Amino acid sequence: MSKDAYRPSEHPDRNLAMELVRATEAAAISAYPFIGKGDKNAADGAAVDAMRAFLATVDFDGVIVIGEGEKDDAPMLFNGERVGNGNGPQCDIAVDPIDGTSLTGAGRQNAISVIAVSDRGSMLDASSVFYMDKIVAGIEARGVVDIRKPIGENIRALAKAKGKDVSEMSIAVLDRPRHEDLIRQIRESGAGTRLLLDGDVAGGINAARYESRIDMCVGIGGSPEGIVTACAIKALDGFIQGILAPKDDAERQKGIDAGLKMDYVYEANELVASDNTFFVATGVTDGALVDGVRRKGPIIRTDSVVLRSRSGTIRRVQADYRADRWGY
User: Fold this and answer.
1) Which of 31, 69, 139, 297 is most buried, with most CB under 10 Å away?
2) Residue 292 and residue 83: Cα distance in Å, rounded?
3) For residues 150, 152, 154 and 155, what is the CA-based torsion angle, rounded to 10 degrees?
4) For the domain bounded by 131-271, which CATH number is listed?
5) Under 8 Å between Cβ of 66 and 230
6) How many Å apart are CA 320 and CA 315, to the nearest integer?
7) What are the sequence ranges of the domains in the chain?
8) Coiled-coil ranges per the record (predicted)?
9) Do 258 and 125 touch, CB atoms closer than 8 A?
10) Any residues with CB less than 8 A from the CB of 189 and at least 6 apart, and which?
């Protein structure tokens, strides 16, 4: 889309981001009582209800491309649901009221509440294939890293581009049995691993942030999380590639029937075609990206990050809420 074709009345504008952060703040605050209580479903349910209520007040006409699942399995924030008050720009929406429900239930770090937004029709709907093999890094990876290459080769190439020794490289990967060989190869290359218990959205974003200790995030995680991450990566001017990873032949065929490409490397502009993306995240628990919700006497404090690709801005938003207004 050319700049001449851009008309603010038809596309998400900067004011939308500050409206959306209210929804992620509400979701995080609502999940707060469940942190460390062992009930991840209760935490997720509270976050979903709060996010949905706030989204209904926002001036936009949104369609959820990536939500909590299909309508029959997810009565709220399901794929295809219309959100917003119907006024304003038409948008694709990706939501994850809690990315890291298990982390929240266990009281572990790096759980966040997330919303990503782009122009209508620009997000890849990869919901028919649950998993995606991804590689995410900063701008230095462009023209240097390729998901089709062995991980050791990619690590050495990125280390050279960043002017670092391989031994200084830190690679984030979900700690899953499926990644045993990948973890072994990373360590054999001389790099160190940062094993993630959950929440590879935060891992991918941290890999693209210039001040982060993570240099690259790799491995198989959720395909919806890949689309959400791509919205943030475009705002950070980073690098992301993804290959769909169906779990069996039936899911592979389901993806093909939905128009998805198998054994194909999706680049950032194919995961999200718009050049006007928003990514909003509020911390539920403490992490490297944002701090978690904190109770400080009569207030509840939230910490959020707001990214926008069109302007290339990264905003930090700290908000204090009166605890009694939330029943605390």
Assistant:
1) 31
2) 26
3) 160
4) 3.40.190.90
5) no
6) 16
7) 16-121+276-325, 131-271
8) none
9) yes
10) 151, 152, 155, 156, 166
User: Residues 200, 101: contact at Cβ < 8 Å?
Assistant: no
Kindly list the distances between the CA atom of residue 8 and the CA atoms of 51, 185, 234, in Å, as whole numbers in the listed order.
25, 47, 19
Both tokens of 198, joined, read 């959950």
Choice between 78 and 47, residue whose per-residue pLDDT is larger: 47
Judge whether 278 and 231 are in contact, CB under 8 Å: yes
Dig out the tokens for 128 from the structure: 């028919």
Q: How far is the C-alpha of 306 from the C-alpha of 20, rounded, in Å? A: 9
> φ and ψ at 253, to 5 degrees?
-65, -35
Sheet bearing 192-196, strands edge to edge:
192-196, 170-174, 216-222, 131-137, 239-244, 266-267
Stretch 23-41: mean pLDDT, rounded? 96
Q: Give the per-residue SS3 of 210-234.
A: CCCCCCEEEEEEEHHHHHHHHHHHH
227, 240 Cβ separation under 8 angstroms:
no
Residues in Cβ contact with 269 at an 8 Å cutoff, skipping those fewer than 6 apart: none
The helix or strand, by DSSP H or E, that contains position 171, with its residue range, turns out to be strand 170-174
Tokens of 1: 């889309």
Query: Percentages helix, strand, coil for the chain, rounded to the nearest 5?
Result: 35, 25, 40
What is the length of the chain?
Answer: 328
User: Rounded to two decimals, what is the model's pTM?
Assistant: 0.88
Q: If you classify domain 16-121+276-325 with CATH, what class do you get?
A: alpha beta
Phi/psi for 267 (5° steps) reads -90, 170
Per-residue pLDDT reduced to its tens digit, 204-258: 999 999 888 999 999 999 998 999 999 999 999 999 999 999 999 999 999 999 9
